Amino acid sequence: MSLVEEPVSAARDADGLPASLEQLALSAVRAAALAAYKHAGSGDGKAADGAATEAMRAILGEAHGLGRVIIGEGEKDNAPMLFNGEELGDGDGPRFDIAVDPVECTDLCANGLPGSLTTIAFAGEGCLWSPGPGLYQDKLVVGRAASDAIDLRESSEWNVERVAKALGKPVDEMRVLLLDKPRHVELAKRLRAMGVTVIMPSAGDVAGAMFALLPGTGVDMLLGVGGTPEGIMAACAVKVLGGGMQTRLAPQRDDEREAIIAAGISLDEILGVDDLIRGPAIFAACGITGGTMLGAPRRMAPGWISTQSLIISPGSYRRIVESTPAPDLNPAGG
Length: 334
Prior knowledge:
With 334 residues, the protein is α+β, with helices and mostly antiparallel strands. The protein folds into two domains: 171 residues, Fructose-1,6-Bisphosphatase, Chain A, domain 1, CATH 3.30.540; 141 residues, D-Maltodextrin-Binding Protein, domain 2. The strands form two sheets. Strands 1, 2, 3, 4, 5, 12, 13, 14 and 15 form a nine-stranded mixed sheet that branches. A six-stranded mixed sheet has the order 8-7-9-6-10-11, with helices on both faces. β14 and β15 form a beta hairpin. The chain starts with a strand and ends in a 9-residue tail after the last strand.
């Protein structure tokens, strides 16, 4: 049983993806969330990640078509993770690219704290940009109303002022999200000196981008350095909903910088959403431990479990509450 909530119009690509991929994305994140939820509060993030990955792999492995993981866990030998280059599906049907994070905010899940999600994104074959060995990138994400107001070549202060003008609000009413990391301490101080409200969650790169992109969240923009895989997944949602996003690789260690240079990838090039996602896309997420965006799985009656998912696809975004039999659900923290 499912309940669809909050249909919202969005920009539509001329060339769409098969409708079957929407249900595949929802099934994959829901299965992964339920698997990870059993380990919520256990203190074992690896167990949650592994369970979510295997649940997601099982769903994708039965897909009609062939998906190739472009953004995953990196090449691993005999590892129980969705790795870059892995192909999944029956091979008879549409071909598509996959970006995946089976458990975003693994530590929050392990500690039973709100904020962990399972996420996946699909795009047409050959449409996802691959960052190679680039693990981190500088990001700027805004909603549609300010999509033309951003420029990553300029300072964060300049961008905040431009976005405020585009949104028709004073700078001291701006709400900006940064991850609570040592690299953002000085930036947070500078923004607060402008009168900006700075929101600093401990984790949640994809969720942060969603808050900046979707209406009614109380967040006007996302700034700062975060994970490149998470950025590519968020870009799929930005692409569909017509928001604004710019990124630039920002290696955090010397070996990462050297690997990027050796791979012939630019450290200076600024990429927009059309560079990151070269075609139509689908983004889906499902709540694991609950939070502002999506609730945790909840037992509704003996043997039944309810989940909250988000699907962003050409034409709209929808929050979906779905209840199905799940007699074996037994979270470690509940």
